[in-house]
Amino acid sequence: MPVITRQIGPCFAAEVEGVDMTQALSHEDVAAIHAGMDRYAVLVFHDQPIDDEQQLGFTDFTAEERERFTPVRQRLVRTHPVTGRKSLYLASHAGSIVGRPVPEARAFLRDLVERATQRQFVYAHQWRVGDLVMWGNHQTMHRARPFPAPEPRDMRRTTLAGDGPTAAQAV
Predict the structure, then answer these.
(1) Which domains does the chain have, with CATH numbers?
(2) Is residue 25 over pLDDT 60?
């Protein structure tokens, strides 16, 4: 059974032990991970020897998948469906706010991002081989950082189904 061993960084990240992501997870394990994500938004699983046959599912998006990724309206203030916590939907691709002039909206969004990315609000993962980091897009912002060119970097991304666009979320 997965166990959160300690909070790391700001209050929204924690390390998890007692789970092997290369094996099928029980319903209890999945429920424990979901509960950890609801509480922390970022979970770190060390020593996960996942190979190419286990992380890979596709090599490119289909035309239908690409169509689903066209820009959609997002609610600026989101409410977490389980905890009820509020969070801001901030991203580098957000560029307007309904009802505000574009220059004013972009300046406001820039100010929000600058506030949200202050050091005390940031978890910067110190990667080691075998790390698996899971985060909830509905609760966190994320960004890759530059790394030394001679160091190999192998990163795989998995996206799970979620709540969809939030513009229709009840106020």
Answers:
(1) 3-135 (3.60.130.10)
(2) yes
